[in-house]
Amino acid sequence: MKTAQCIVNKHFKISAIDERIYGSFIEHMGRAVYTGIYQPEHATADEQGFRHDVIDTIQQLNVPIIRYPGGNFVSGYDWKDGIGPKQERPTRLDYAWFSLETNQFGINEFADWARKAGTEGMIAVNLGSGTPQEAGYLAEYCNIEQGTYWSDKRREHGYQQPHNFKVWCLGNEMDGPWQTCALTAEQYADKARETAKILKWVDPNIELVACGSSSKEMATFPEWDRTVLEACYEHVDYISLHRYYEYEGDKASFLAAYHDLDDFITTIKATADYAKAKHRSDKTMMLSLDEWNVWYIKHMDTKRWQWAPSIAEDVYSLLDALVVGGLLTTIVNNADRVKMACLAQLVNALAPIHTDPQGGVLRHATYYPFQQVSNYGRGEVYKNRVVCDCIETDKYGQVAELATLTTFDSQTNELAFFVLNIHLEEDIDLQLRLEEFGELMLLEQQVLTGEDLFAVNSFENPNKVVPQHIDVDKPVGTSFSFILPKASWTMLRFKRA
Ligand code: AHR
């Protein structure tokens, strides 16, 4: 059997983990909102129409921040359509997804829903068809206590206390020709900077995210990011990154996505640091990976001008779940610069959670690695020295066959280790050396694997792809050996003895 070693030393801490790295995303897209989180006639809906079966499923994911309301949707969205008496709200054409938007769910409903779901909002403003002034009015509506036109309107609408949203995104993917009123880098840089000034005048306590390139494949990447950062450096706190992967027939390359994401993050860090040097700035720009996931974008089917159509309802397989696990290792290993990240998205549209409007909730396979890392990958992240072989991939060349992540939480005294074995034919005997952490007791071992990499969960068979709990007799030690099955994702939890 193949062997490998992973040595983790408590003196080699990468960073404390900002919990917002386990964020997610709800866009007005397909059935994410309507018949997803909001469905007044559903059996589990509360008096506000929020589905509690969905809230419960989200709560188990432990998601501290949720981006809203888009996405592409926000670039043509007038937030004022979604406030005030519901019967007076207009139905509009949503240019992003060619859907009908009834505006029955708006910023106030989102604030209430987020509170009930135990999460916070990351609010995106419209920098497509919208203006800096309208973005400022939204911040005034949400974050000013009272005594101004928009804050008093909010009070009139029944919200005496401000929502106090802390994180604001300056538009969405404004380099994309698919965006309502896309901009050149120079146009966006000016618009984002002027909007940033207004938003921070309205509320100096907020944090701002500037749009980076919408993907690494854009012709303007990474020049867009350089232009935007040079123009906005002292006005914003984060640059955004978006990254999606899909299986295109080559399993090895798909499983190696974790390696590509690391490369992408490295490039954006370098670009941001160039802008820092140019500005002679003391501030280090942090990264917000505010869209990431597996997404079968080529299978998108858009029906025109329907309300709550099924869009991007990907049914994720075991293979997809393994890829999501690998991506999580990369994200958290970069926690020194990636302070926020959003699994895109959360419900129905390219999401781990699927709802039946007439029934219950289904957890797709990708739900599980996210749940494990979000719940247990807390505290601090440590550097791993991995001695293993590489695999030759068509897309990325030589890639290490193991992707690993080690976190230690001093609150719970628990160490968590996550590992993806991307080898398609061979199990690997891993020796995990944790000597510097002192004596540890193995609490739990969970493995996600299976013969059929394309197996999926369904309402008929909801537990076809779930992690298996391996019986452990709670060994104590400083070095442990585990068999990592071919094409598998493993979580190990230890407690300091
Ligand atoms: O998450 C789906 C879409 O992907 C978002 O609306 C957009 O920002 C990205 O292209």
Automatic annotation (TrEMBL):
<dbReference type="InterPro" id="IPR010720">
    <property type="entry name" value="Alpha-L-AF_C"/>
</dbReference>
<dbReference type="InterPro" id="IPR013780">
    <property type="entry name" value="Glyco_hydro_b"/>
</dbReference>
<dbReference type="Pfam" id="PF22848">
    <property type="entry name" value="ASD1_dom"/>
</dbReference>
<comment type="similarity">
    <text>Belongs to the glycosyl hydrolase 51 family.</text>
</comment>
<feature type="domain" description="Alpha-L-arabinofuranosidase C-terminal">
    <location>
        <begin position="290"/>
        <end position="488"/>
    </location>
</feature>
<dbReference type="InterPro" id="IPR017853">
    <property type="entry name" value="GH"/>
</dbReference>
<keyword id="KW-0378">Hydrolase</keyword>
<dbReference type="Pfam" id="PF06964">
    <property type="entry name" value="Alpha-L-AF_C"/>
</dbReference>
<keyword id="KW-0326">Glycosidase</keyword>
<keyword id="KW-0119">Carbohydrate metabolism</keyword>
<comment type="subunit">
    <text>Homohexamer; trimer of dimers.</text>
</comment>
<protein>
    <recommendedName>
        <fullName>non-reducing end alpha-L-arabinofuranosidase</fullName>
        <ecNumber>3.2.1.55</ecNumber>
    </recommendedName>
</protein>
<dbReference type="InterPro" id="IPR055235">
    <property type="entry name" value="ASD1_cat"/>
</dbReference>
